[in-house]
Design goal:
mainly alpha; disordered N terminus
């Protein structure tokens, strides 16, 4: 009877023990901070791509038998990695595969973490699935790279087309401006020619009274035998001689066209320089010694003439402008450029020489007006 009152206290103690026990077990089951960090690190590492697991002993044996690293690794992994016989059998079965010697695609690390123990067949099937997924991902990345390269190629083509159009437009404007300057140059040359012609007419009219001119001698420094010869001119045409300005214009136009043609053909500038220097020699000799036959005749077969003058486009035009003509040489029977003594006009020679000298000394000759 006295022990009965003690039972509630023992029961209370039991209750305290029973209530305290679950609390302790819950505290023990709760994860610590370090465990949570390790779990987070494992999750981060799970996305890392690694090589598929491989039986290194079988891999070593296959490599010692002479198989390549990639072929041996494929055989070990894809055959299940159980025995050397199954690996060799896999190689014999797949030796004609296009990718047999290519490295195995990497797989995510987390996919290799065992969740449950798989049978060899399940492990093999799981690995095939992972390899197929890796292959699909790689092909998608390749397609994405190819689309990016195609986009860059199209953009580059558009930019090149735009630049080409800009260059063509600039070239068109340059040619229009060049034609405008040439026209202005020609107009100024014609105006100067008309002005000089009118001045010469006025001087002749003032000097000779406007009547018919007979046996009018010209100064030896500026005239020629042809101009000093007797000429009959009526009042409607008091001056039949071609003014030197026209000879000058013809030579200038010939040299300008020749220089532009040489530049367009990317020819050596020394060719044009040599041509002009050779013309200066011919014209200088003719101007100093017009009575000397050898200076009034140039053989077309002469090697120096062929190399320095005839090689240029329309190379004899400047000589023809001052009176040279292609004829048969009475002495040799060969073709030659010949000017008769009575046709030598030193004004023409001087005018032509002036243009040739300008082409030699003025780098902007024929470019600006």
């Amino acid at each position: 009877m006295e022990s009965a009152p003690e039972q509630p206290s023992s029961m209370a103690a039991g209750q305290e023990e029973s209530t305290s026990q679950p609390a302790g077990s819950k505290a023990e089951d709760a994860p610590t901070d370090s465990e949570m960090q390790e779990a987070g690190a494992d999750e981060d590492d799970g996305d890392e791509l690694v090589d598929p697991p491989c039986n290194e002993e079988l891999l070593k044996d296959l490599k010692e038998m002479g198989f390549s690293e990639n072929r041996s690794r494929r055989a070990v992994v894809l055959s299940g990695g159980t025995t050397i016989e199954t690996a060799i059998g896999w190689i014999e079965e797949h030796e004609n595969d296009a990718d047999i010697d290519e490295p195995l695609p990497k797989v995510p690390r987390k996919s290799l973490q065992p969740k449950k123990k798989l049978s060899p067949e399940e492990a093999k099937e799981q690995l095939k699935i992972m390899l197929e997924q890796a292959k699909v991902k790689r092909e998608e990345e390749e397609r994405k790279s190819e689309r990016e390269r195609e986009r860059m190629r199209i953009d580059m083509g558009k930019e090149m087309t735009k630049q080409r159009a800009q260059l063509e437009e600039a070239e068109r404007k340059r040619r229009i401006e060049e034609r405008r300057r040439e026209k202005e140059e020609e107009d100024r040359a014609r105006a100067k020619a008309r002005e000089k012609l009118e001045r010469v007419k006025a001087e002749r009219k003032a000097k000779y009274g406007g009547g018919p001119i007979k046996n009018v001698p010209l100064d030896d420094k500026t005239g020629s035998a042809a101009e000093t010869a007797t000429s009959e001119r009526d009042s409607s045409s008091p001056f039949q001689r071609v003014p030197p300005i026209f000879v000058s214009d013809k030579v200038r136009a010939t040299l300008r066209t020749m220089k532009q043609t040489e530049k367009a053909n990317n020819a050596d500038p020394a060719r044009f320089t040599t041509y002009c220097k050779t013309l200066m020699v011919y014209l200088g000799n003719l101007n100093k010694n017009p009575d000397e036959p050898k200076f009034r005749k140039i053989r077309l077969s002469n090697p120096a003439f062929q190399k320095r003058v005839a090689c240029m486009p329309n190379g004899i035009a400047c000589l023809e402008a001052v009176g040279f003509e292609v004829k048969k040489d009475d002495e040799t029977g060969e073709d030659a450029l010949i000017i008769e003594r009575e046709k030598v006009n030193l004004e023409y020679v001087a005018a032509a020489a002036g243009q040739v000298d300008a082409a030699l000394t003025n780098p902007m000759f024929g470019v600006l007006g």
